[in-house]
Automatic annotation (TrEMBL), chains A, B:
Entry-linked Pfam families: CBS (PF00571), Voltage_CLC (PF00654)
GO molecular function annotations of the record: voltage-gated chloride channel activity
Region (Disordered) residue spans: 1-21
Keywords: CBS domain, Chloride, Chloride channel, Ion channel, Ion transport, Membrane, Repeat, Transmembrane, Transmembrane helix, Transport, Voltage-gated channel
GO cellular component: chloride channel complex; plant-type vacuole membrane
Organism in which the protein naturally occurs: Nepenthes gracilis (Slender pitcher plant)
Protein name in UniProt: Chloride channel protein
Residue ranges constituting the CBS domain according to the UniProt record: 712-776
InterPro entries: CBS_dom, CBS_dom_sf, Cl-channel/antiporter, Cl-channel_core, Cl_channel_pln, ClC
Cell compartments where the protein resides: Membrane
Membrane spanning stretches: 88-112, 141-166, 186-209, 253-276, 288-307, 340-360, 380-401, 465-497, 517-541, 548-565
Membrane topology reported for the UniProt record: Multi-pass membrane protein
Lineage top rank: taxon: Eukaryota
């Protein structure tokens, strides 16, 4: 441990991009100044982390850590004491008003998304159907393929050129954000724009993708945009939202946004709250639960009134289906012991399929990231290739299926005439239908509805189900990762429902359960096997299908499939977070951390300031390091012995430097600074928009002047003793949402701070890189 | 601040019973020893807390704090390093096995409870009905009153003589336990016994009480009993559960138990999980969510199969009603703008009624506590009085109602013939029914079912609804607090449903919504107004009534009523927790805490040990203080300067003292101790069952010997610097579930520890008692 005791530095995640793999000893030596103490620079190149990032390639922009701690500096305290009741009321009111706005906007966007998809995809399918029923097969193919590839290219181009961050599901990024990692431009207005329109166009293009992941991301973007008071870039700002310009309030808003997204996508308000709680958010408190609940209630009301409005046919092809997307409540949910055995079997196999899905998605993503890295044109080419493949499957495979005689005593027409419908005619003559076409040549939503449909045991042949399952399972895997907004829920539900129906057909002789309900259980098993959620999936499925009586079986299936899949790998979102190199902090401490202490992982050099510091030193430290937090040490004559005053943030330093409130002598000018500034001046702007050191110029004379750091120093940073178990330090760090944690020495007579721990220092790659021998104990 | 810097002591909640109000300076002076340092004893009598306790009177037994921190001492670390995979597997397996057992047992108990109530109350009502239809009114009254008072007396006697802790709902106590406060014998086997049988008898006795609160408590008791490996007192123990003998694992089990209780009471598995999450638990992590979910799934399966079994009439009068207790899904949930306005009105008034309910319950509880304090006979007398009043109301008031003509075209018979039924004949002649008797002379469950019944707009007259509402609202308030197990859910749902139906009748002309659905919304508004939950109530109501389409309105009503009620007072469970004097830690820090620092609230004197301490000093400290944690200071020659080694617990000290592993010289014998003990020796037994100092006798010679405390010293206690904001310290304390928090000095050259903060030190009563002037800033 001796070797580390003195090796200390204030590192943060964001300097990874600059430091990794480079020999950075040069610049450090220059700042060996009396005020900035450096001992034994013990820089370790983070090869593990570097290779981790190399995998995903595109993501070399700096990742920023977020700070959920309240910065209790003197400025804050002064403001706190003088805060009036009306201000507190204003703050609370705005918080609720924002939640309302987030709910309204997300509800509207979700509805707009629905209308867009239903109409674009609907007219495409109608046109194709019409040509098919006229036996103009080749023309139908051209129309269908043309629409698919054209729309796919638009979605790809939007993503590739305007907002690469909009590709994919977005849930992993939102999850990482709520854990405290801000990936570059993940919540930018351009991302929002592309996410909304890219998702509509992409889903309409017939890709095996969903709109739920994108809706979660959209909700988060909307929340961020509203919380920021609009976008400064597009000259849309409200200044009265200044109180929300901090990571803490922003996190709360984005949690609400994510919940609103799920609520809008699945028309499942309670499921949305639970999704945000179980999967997305890392921190939670009951006040937030309530506000999230409010937001999703607003979404539900918006959706309900708009659907009511559309039910009279005012929204084009959109209109069918109320708040329940796939209603199965008409089926009788009676089951016996034999059914439970069948369901156990279904759960186990579903879990295995789910974990294989995760495994393959991970592999495909790694390959795609190499292709996507090569440039926008490669991205679009990949999108077009997948689009061609999807089109070929969905138009080609139905030809394999033999025509089936339409069942008698049907309420709906057979073959179906509209753009959706259970009984697609395809190439079959009148009175016959092609069951495979009913699945392939429909929107994903309609295909799921067909699979969930009850009292239609023999509608789909076993061979057709096998073909559809294989195609959708593979297409789902190869589609995620291309440069379009792509949700994972729908592909998984689609594959799972087909699998469930297949199992239902196989157990037909022993089980009384409806095949539609088997499809629902199959979807549950796949969702459990890939997403690994429990309560939220359960409620979402309940809200999707309105079958409460099946709840015990759904719970059972989710538990089994999750348990089975957990034996093999992690949930799909966790995998993607890891693949993207986002430093996600787990809620629990790893076992090996109990064998290390905090002092073991701090690495040098540490840059500290004195309470009244020379401007030149500060500028130099800011220029030469990427650190975001600097310990402030009070030294004689301002204290008897050197003692830790607190922690000062880079962003706060920049504001103070820009104001140039310097003094010639080394005196404490804190009082004047307190008069001149208010906490609003130090509000944190949106990501990547803060003050930069390059924007400020300094005279030589100014560099020799002094600045009093006390007013902006957080005098209550969370500290741990260097001999504190690393596991306990990690739990403290994670539970309180810290960005910096000060490590203080155990024995007296040493400098008052040993180092600073950041998120990065707790990452397994870092810890196990330092102590490879400990790995075996894991 | 200077005055507090040196005022420090290691206090804990449990010594309140001993110290409060007494002049305790005497004993302290005796332990002024070279090893036990005391500076400036600054004892403040805690008058605030004392008066707080005096209110509830009966509760003078010591309350114990719980410790959710992992005690990382050398013993633990040694065990951790040598832990084999098979042991970890065993631990995980047992954890799940226990969850399964908790689910099974709670499901069975819940079912048993149902059968008991339905049969006892059912036969009582059948008998009364038969006599009524024979026009033997007085005999019917005697039978009815006799049954009620007899059963009531049994329930009261069980509570008063066997387990006083079983009285009331139990949810506040479980909530406090999960927050870290162990009230005396709250989870004891005798409490469990009385809770189960007392609840059956009490509900059957016709009291306006529910069985859900008691079921939550029952679930928690079962979980505690199973986790403890049975009861030592009754010679039922399994030794292989030793790994679970700590507060942390026990807390997780009890969370599962509480969830299972709700799941069993309402047949609402998802609602149970959410109740545990939103209302009961203070700490939560996703692994626990999953295990809770598993437990409630087991409950759901158990209930479903048993209900299936009973549906063929094998369980006496129990049998009707499947998993959905009050099914309203047959009603069409169509609503327009006018309905939403009506619902808004309903929500606001419901919230006001809810908060008045809380206010009155609080007042009544304060009066009752004075009566109950006087002895068991007074308790029983109070029970009998309330029983007489309830009987008088339920048998007397229906006479006011005029007989109504039976509606034509009914499926069921009118007047009803069974023990339940919508149309009670009471005094009316054939072809007529008494609507008030249909509500009063039924079990509470059946009354709610009648109120929720749809397509029966005119079944209940407005006047009858008003009478029933007034009676039930008042009876609910005066019944809670008497010495029987009494849930609050059912009285609130009953009053709320009546209120909702009343509003429905009033808005009949403008609203299309079914009065049954209005009753549901009324129940939601009352629940929101008293309990102040959101998501969990929403899901519980959904699972109770199976009407997903009404979800947006239910959400709206809950939000409104909670918002309105929050303007007036706190939730009913929080009120009771406060009334009982349980030191509950809120999740957020109070505003005034930001103006204080940790050093401001530590109070003296501090008792510390050296790493190798004299036995006599330890015994003396244990005898003369009630502290449960003592800082251990390493002093020269074992370290260069005095430094904080860690924290040692009273219970661990006692184990070491009992083993008498002493040495004549002041040497470190840690290695030998490590060999001799395993962490299991230090496992925490059930509450109130640990080793006591009186059980150990010491020779004079032994008192002069030394003992090495290092192996049992937690070397990683969470510490805060004395200048840390009190708000931040409180958040750290609460978020990590601590029992002791060390306060260390900021400047060097002082003793290495300033004091210890415990739960008690963060209580508003304590802080505001020390700094009354700060109150205004609140």
């Amino acid at each position: 441990m001796d070797q580390h005791e003195d090796a200390n530095h204030a590192d943060d995640v964001e300097n990874r991009g600059e430091l990794d793999g480079k020999e950075v000893e040069g610049p450090w030596s220059e700042i060996l100044d009396k005020n900035i103490s450096i001992r034994q620079p013990l820089l370790r190149t983070r090869t593990n982390m570097t290779s981790q990032i190399a995998v995903i390639g595109a993501n070399v922009c700096p990742i920023e850590s977020l700070d959920y701690e309240i910065i209790e500096n003197e400025l804050f305290k002064q403001d706190w004491r003088s805060r009036k009741k009306v201000q507190i009321f204003q703050y609370v009111f705005l918080k609720w008003a924002l939640a309302l706005l987030i709910g309204l906007s997300t509800g509207l966007v979700g509805f707009f998304n629905n209308i867009g998809v239903e109409n674009i995809a609907g007219y495409k399918l109608l046109w194709t159907n019409d040509l098919m029923s006229d036996k103009k097969y080749f023309k139908a193919f051209l129309v269908y393929a043309g629409c698919n590839i054209g729309l796919g290219t638009i979605a790809g181009a939007l993503c590739a050129f305007i907002a690469p961050a909009a590709a994919g599901s977005g849930i992993p990024e939102v999850k990482a954000y709520l854990n405290g990692v801000d990936a570059p431009s993940i919540l930018a207005p351009s991302t929002l724009f592309v996410k909304i329109f890219g998702s509509i166009v992409g889903v309409s293009a017939g890709f095996v993708v969903g709109k739920e992941g994108p809706m979660v991301h959209t909700g988060a973007c909307i929340a961020n945009l509203l919380g920021q008071g609009g976008s400064r870039k597009y000259h849309l700002t409200w200044t009265w939202l200044r109180y929300f310009k901090n990571d803490r309030d922003r996190r709360d808003l984005i949690t609400c946004g994510a919940a609103a997204g799920v609520a809008a996508a699945f028309r499942a308000p309670v499921g949305g709250v639970l999704f945000a709680l179980e999967e997305a958010a890392s921190w939670w408190r009951s006040a937030l639960l309530w506000r999230t609940f409010f937001t999703t209630a607003v979404v539900a009301l918006v959706l309900r009134s708009l659907i009511e409005y559309c039910s009279s046919g005012k929204c084009g092809l959109f209109g069918k289906g109320g708040l329940i997307m796939y209603d199965v409540s008409s089926a009788e949910a009676s089951y016996s012991g034999a059914d439970i055995l069948a369901v156990l079997f279904l759960g186990v196999i579903g879990g295995i399929f789910g974990s294989i899905y995760n495994y393959l998605v991970d592999k495909v993503l790694r390959i795609y990231s190499i292709i996507n890295e090569k440039g926008a044109s490669f991205k679009i080419l990949l999108v077009i290739s997948v689009s061609i493949l999807t089109t070929a499957c969905s138009f080609g495979l139905p030809w394999i299926a033999k025509c089936t005689v339409c069942p008698t005593s049907l309420k709906e027409s057979c073959p179906s005439t509209g753009e959706s419908g259970n009984y697609k005619g395809f190439q079959c003559q009148s009175g016959y239908y092609n069951d495979l076409a009913s699945l392939f040549l429909n929107t994903n939503d309609d295909a799921i509805r067909n699979l969930f449909s009850t009292s239609t045991e023999h509608e789909f042949k076993i061979s057709s189900l096998i073909i559809f399952f294989s195609a959708i399972y593979c297409l789902g895997i190869i589609t995620y990762g291309i440069a379009i907004p792509a949700g994972l829920f729908i592909p998984v539900i689609l594959a799972g429902a087909t699998y469930g129906r297949l199992v239902g057909r196989l157990f037909e002789s022993v089980s009384e359960l409806d095949t539609g309900l088997f499809a629902l259980l199959g979807a549950a098993s796949f969702l459990g096997g890939t997403m690994r959620m429990t309560v939220s999936l359960c409620v979402i499925l309940l809200e999707l299908t309105n079958d409460l009586l099946l709840l015990p079986l759904v719970m059972l299936v989710l538990l089994i499939s999750k348990t089975v899949a957990d034996c093999f790998n992690k949930g799909v979102y966790d995998q993607i977070v890891k693949l993207k190199g986002l430093p996600y902090m787990e809620a629990h401490a790893e076992a090996y951390m109990r064998q290390l202490v905090a002092g073991d992982v701090v690495s040098g050099p540490l840059v500290t300031f004195t309470g009244a510091e020379k401007v030149g030193n500060i500028v130099h430290a800011l220029q030469t390091t990427g650190h975001n937090g600097f310990p402030v040490i009070d030294e004689p004559p301002y204290s008897e012995a050197p003692e830790l005053c607190g922690l000062v943030l880079r962003s706060h330093l920049l504001v103070l430097l820009k104001a140039k409130y310097f003094s010639r002598e080394r005196v404490l000018t804190g009082r004047d600074i307190l008069k001149k500034f208010s906490p609003v001046d130090f509000a944190k702007p949106g990501s990547g928009k803060g003050l930069k050191l390059e924007d400020i110029t300094f005279e030589d004379e100014e560099m020799e002047m002094y600045i009093d750091l006390h007013p902006i120093t957080n005098a209550s940073p969370y500290t741990v003793v260097e001999t504190m178990s690393l596991a306990k330090a990690a739990i403290l760090f994670r539970q309180l949402g810290l960005r910096h944690m000060c490590v203080v020495p155990k024995s007296q007579g040493r400098p008052p701070i040993v180092g600073i721990l950041t998120r990065h220092d707790f990452m397994p790659e870092h810890v196990l890189g330092l102590y490879p021998h400990i790995k075996g104990h894991k």
